[in-house]
Amino acid sequence: MLDLINVSYDTQIPNNxxxxxxxxxxKALEKWHPGYINWWxxxxxxxxxxxxxxxxTAVSVDPKGWAKFDYVKMPEYRWGxxxxxxxxxxxxPCGEHAGQPAWQEVPGEYRNMLKRLIVIQGDTEPASVEQxxxxxxxxxxxxxxxxxxxxxxxxxxHLWAMxxxxxxxxxxxxxxxxxxxxxxxxxxxxxxxxLGAFNEETPDWLSFFMFTYFTDRDGKxxxxxxxxxxxxxxxxxxxFMLTEEAHxxxxxxxxxxxxxxxxxxxxxxxxxxxPYDIDKIRAFGVIDLPTIQKKLNLHYTLSLDxxxxxxxxxxxxxxxxxxxxRYMEHRLTDDHMLKNDTYPVWDFxxxxxxxxxxxxxxxxxxxxxxxxxxxxxGGVGRWNKLIAKSGVEFEMKLPHESFHRQIGxxxxxxxxxxxxxxxxxxxxxxxxxxxxxxxxxxxxQSLMTPVSEPGKYASWISPPKVGIDNKPGDFEYVKLxxx
Amino acid sequence: xxxxxxxxxxxxxYHHWRVSYDGPIATLFMDVDENAGLFEGYQLKxxxxxxxxxxxxxxxxxxxxxxxxxxxxxxxxxxxxxxxxAGANIRMLGGASHAHKVNFCKFTNETRNxxxxxxxxxxxxxxxxxxxxxxGGGYELALACNHIMLTxxxxxxxxxxxxxxxxxLPGTGGLTRVTDKRKMRRDLADVFCSLEEGVKGKRAVKxxxxxxxxxxxxxxxxxxxxxxxxxxxxxxxxxTGIALTPLxxxxxxxxxxxxxLVEVAVDRKAGKATLTLSGPDSEVPASxxxxxxxxxxxxxxxxxxxxxxxxxxxxxxxxxxxxLVFRTQGDPQAFLAHEAFxxxxxxxxxxxxxxxxxxxxxxxxxxxxxxxxxxxxHGSCFAGILAELLWSVDRSxxxxxxxxxxxxxxAAITLSDANFGAFPMGNALTRLQTRFLGEPxxxxxxxxxxxxxxxxxxxxxxxxxxxxxxxxxxxxxxxIFMEERASFSPDALTGMEANLRFAGPETMETRIFGRLTAWxxxxxxxxxxxxxxxxxxxYGSGVRGDYAQERV
Lengths: 483, 552
Ligand SMILES: [Fe+2]
Ligand SMILES: [Fe+2]
Description:
The complex is a heterodimer of chains A (483) and B (552). Chain A is mainly alpha-helical and 483 residues long. Chain A contains 13 helices and 5 strands. Chain A has a single domain, classed as Ribonucleotide Reductase, subunit A (Orthogonal Bundle). In chain A, helix 3 packs antiparallel against helix 4 (142-169) and helix 3 (111-131) runs parallel beside helix 5 (171-183). Chain B has 2 domains: 11-233, 2-enoyl-CoA Hydratase, Chain A, domain 1; 250-496, 2-enoyl-CoA Hydratase, Chain A, domain 1, CATH 3.90.226.10. In chain B, the strands form 5 sheets. In chain B, strands 13-14-15-16-17-18-20-23 form an 8-stranded mixed β-sheet, sandwiched between helices. A 6-stranded mixed β-sheet of chain B has the order 1-2-4-7-9-12, with helices on both faces. In chain B, strands 5-8-10-11 form a 4-stranded mixed β-sheet. The longest helix of chain B has 25 residues, at 98-122. Classes of the chains: A mainly alpha (483), B alpha/beta (552). Chains A and B meet through helix 1 of A and helix 18 of B. The structure holds fe (ii) ion (FE2) (2 copies). The site of one fe (ii) ion (FE2) has 5 residues of chain A, from helix 4.
């Protein structure tokens, strides 16, 4: 009997899926592993590869103690394959097969659909590591550097998780797809990553924090809906990934929060009351709040695009097949089939925005995006509390979802952040107030000087309230390798 | 119409036909018992036919080949006065399910093709001797004969009245044969196919509808004389026939079938039937005498008869088994030895008939409207004729390398002379030529490798199989292929497969099974034919069909 709580280290790959007795998958994974290590080594700058990083490693799926912390060289990190424990008698939660026993093997009729979903999810995991590959060179502290690497190694593990599914359940095709996940690369002309947002570089640390807050949250919503899959191994994989994903969003939320906090602190200390007194604020080496708002506008709207078309037959098919559920499907009280239900979807009529009822089955993307927006609003509220507490008068806002969109009904239309449709000229005249300019980017870049002394932080960001693993303020999160 | 249809019969059970033998000449009397229809609800008046009549005809044609090799000419005529044959029974068609109609047409077409090809394949020539009305399917029976004689009694006529009368097509090859085989001018054919009463006398000859018209008083004598002439001119190899005895066949409670060499396992839930063919269970006959002595118990003949029966059974009685899986198990070298014995002795009538039967059988598989897949497993014997199955089916999967705990001989495919001409498809190309239409040199290259046991990698490399899978992937990939197949629309699959199977040139045969049949099946689904006010339903009521005028 396989011990599902205590991970077996009897093979090269920590896992709770009985790998050592599954010769075929073990063989496939061991074949894939060297390519992965090469990918990792080519990616992260060499001196960081040799450094000792205080990382958590997933060693179990027990909610009470699934990770342990220790110094580790990243190439020696043990990327494991961990699935949340099997729920006894789990049923397919939605769609036309709702109520039937969950699939333990890939149902042939949905094989291609499932494979596509897993490949798309899998493609985003290494992509973000690629996008963030140079950030360590300008880390504002060892604490932040460690967080970056933590996110990176866990995205790497998420890639492993998807590769495991491909190799275990999708045969020859699956193995080819697993290889292709390493062949594509963010920003590459030859073979770019599948989704546009994952081909943009993450140029600075504020972008990184915004990315982990907004874009990883898209990842979270996708994982949440895949966690509701009737294909049980996918569901279990995604449920465990979500425990790690929470930390990524924590890094994003606290990173943006600490940036805001530092700005507000400098403003109050120097008696600056007008948040738009930008030059004066920037002169103190912090990022003014309006610029942070612009970064928020950018990352939020790029992330909204990741949800695809509001009305989508692909999404409907996946839901109806029981391959992908809705956010918190198990807590919803409808029939889980959406045979006759409707859902209000944004539409664009006579120059006006209207919500119109569409068949709920085709509006799965819209619904997930609405859930996302609600979820994303929480952190924004907490940032505003920090600002209010400092006495500065300013409020961060999520822009209207029609603003700055490339996909869906709003695509390419000149809406302002409040959701008013402007003429293209009006929009162009104001765009620099809403989205970061090159000058904004240059300014942020100018602040990105590395700080590598334990307990010290760059000028533009506050220290965290508590350390990782409750470590004290001057803890050396990364023992840098000096060549 | 849900009763199980048995394709095995023998002369003692015939209701509808009589045969008299006179040396090299046999006379086939169609004398349909109107009260012996295969199903309830219709009478087979005026020598009209249903599937039961055609099953008997198919049996006669088959026995003519094997039991009566001395016969060189077969005269097909009517046992009734004033009517040769009125065609397929309209009430039967009106009451039959769409699926049955389609299957019925396919089977009748196959039977027509069989006796039509008898002259070229083995020197048995069919003459249609027509007295009385010869309408629709009746004329199609005659069209498939190699010589048509019509009496000139001022009333006997040949006709294809389906369009004006029934709002369907002369679908048993009728439309195709008038232009393709009889080479009738197409505008005259248009006129002919619109004339309910048909064409008689001299005009029938002029229009190429028949080969000769003969004064009624002399008709029987001229027919007899013609038969003798043809028989004398024939150089058909003859001998003493063998008996086609009943097949050993048991049907399991779950619908599975067990023959001596063929096993059909049924998985109803998955909608699939797995046909496993066994390699030789006996030595190669030591001599031609031995082959004749074995008769219908000889390996390759027995295998063909069993497989043929299984395919027909699945077609008619198991409509919901949408996937046919072909497996073989046995010694490929032994199989090739049996095959080579026949191929080397084609001048012997029996060896020739057995091979010609395989040609027909493989064609029958080609046009079977089910998804078909071949699994080349370890221990299999896809060699020579059996390898043809790999290119008859829609896809083939092959085991690669050793499988844990499986000590059967490693899967291999062996080509032989049989794969390079003796077993053409309906399009007149070999299956390999059809498969490699874009690279004929690939066929030449394969011809060089006859006799080599090609293992998975080579087989895949040379395009003989769709995919190869090793121990790690086999079970999953096969399962997933089957599940995916089962999830597709059976109609779309039937259409897709039928289109993909017959690349290359058109022949009369491909036109019959492709074009004519597809159109007919479409018409069978349209209200103008089969709706409550359609012509098939109203036939005999005195009221004509009420047609929707929209052209589609
Ligand atoms: Fe991730
Ligand atoms: Fe993440």
